[in-house]
């Protein structure tokens, strides 16, 4: 819903009504699929719309433009990600908007709702039961473990074991520094006692002053080793934690990043802020704790050796202090966790703005984004203040008790002096963790999480002679983050080695999901996915992906040179191979025309290139790998007709060069798949028609209607 509301950020902000939102969604042919979602218009689409298919995202973007009722409507390949049916419906709506000079008219729209058959309903019940036994079990297995603060600290200290010598030096310095404080009290008492005898003052001033200077130098040296040792160990631990956390993140399956709490903003916060918070636990703060324990230990020993009664009175408030500190720490842990969630949301919002800055500026919603960000930051800053009220009350009580304790101590001293049981020298001798714990537990949960698909695993079978056979055997799939939505329903598909197979169907019918399962971004919920007769889950993950070449609907480029992007992930690639791959993808001449040629940087996410140019570089990146299975997910959707024909010829040439290569193609433009050996029509996660182009045209079924809609017959 918020995506539609963003479009109405006018000088006098008027949030669009629900009727306007639904009308815009109908115009963009998005209303029906939105109503099928669990939370309908309140469904969170995920970071950069990760929860939606390309066609669904495109339709929501169109609806966002229509709800704004613009005077000028700018369409940059606005229907490139839509199938032919949705493209025609949306195009008619856009034509009406342009013809009438406005987006909305008074004409009633007809909405067709397909009724679920009894078989579909039975299937949904069956899949819901299946979900409860698989997906929910998986979530239970992956739930974070509960760590006590003690065990968490011990785990953390064990990670600092390579610096044990440095830590021991720091601890020894702290222990000696703690012991130096009672020594200071002894010297002070001796001086005071000597000063009470006037005849001995001059003879002892120089000697006692020298003792103070020596003690001060010793404390200075101890302080140096204290802070230096723990600063070194803390910095190395922070580096180690960040490296291990990043390595653990790379291991996680794709579904892990579908969750809102694992957005890019949350992960950046975890690696930066939380890692620094952990350093405070094992850095100089650990030294302060060691020094305090040492000071207390030697102080109690000294006090008990002199007068146990005064020692007991002096240390009685400490018990109360421990209780207050424990309660205060728990309160601050809760506050830190809540504040961290708000900061994470703010970071995610900032990352979303950076990624979609052009859209934000086009919609003129900078003020709204700033308002949301400022509100989240304000709440994050205010929340830690709430525990300060009980914190202040508790410590106020403690200081009151301390004052009364000192008063009682003086009364007891006078009482002992009257009985001559105490001397003057003996009297003078007696005088941020919560946020860190939260950060520690966050990292330990990540370190201990075993991904369902371990990207760092070296286990698994490697097929000696992989031929490229693919078989989906009664495969059912449900996304873990959308447990009520059945994406694939008992899908059966047998792709022979070297076959060229095309998948067609409406947006959201499961086409891209099939490719993601072949790349093993996700595992099947039930059924089997076989490669040359072997279950894909038994294969080595790195070997598997090295034999697949994927060109997705949204090409991803890195802020590197063109040559580095084409050869990304490969080592010592000859320039000749890079040029050859670029030539096949029809991008070589364009690259040669650039001032720096193949050394031209493409910018963040390829921002210096057009959509078609980025796509051709992505295709060249696949060509250079010579994959056994070629996966094309709308590979030519961002190209004009001329480049599409050239690249399509290059793709067919790649098939001719290696006749044993298996190809799986997803396309909305049916002209690109007519020559395929097998064409499968998907609807609601099932194959409803299959055959080659001629066979399907003779049946005059769904495919026949799609071809007629595309004016290809």
Automatic annotation (TrEMBL):
Residue intervals of the ABC transporter domain: 470-709
Compartments, as annotated in UniProt: Membrane
Domain named ABC transmembrane type-1: residues: 168-431
Keyword annotations from UniProtKB, A to Z: ATP-binding, Membrane, Nucleotide-binding, Transmembrane, Transmembrane helix, Transport
Any Pfam family the entry gives: ABC_membrane
GO cellular component: mitochondrial inner membrane
GO biological process: oligopeptide export from mitochondrion
Entry keyword Zinc: no
Gene Ontology molecular function, alphabetical: ABC-type oligopeptide transporter activity; ATP binding; ATP hydrolysis activity
Bilayer topology: Multi-pass membrane protein
Keyword Lipid metabolism: no
Membrane-crossing segments per the record: 164-193, 205-225, 310-327, 388-411
The name this protein goes by in its record: Uncharacterized protein
Native organism: Rotaria magnacalcarata
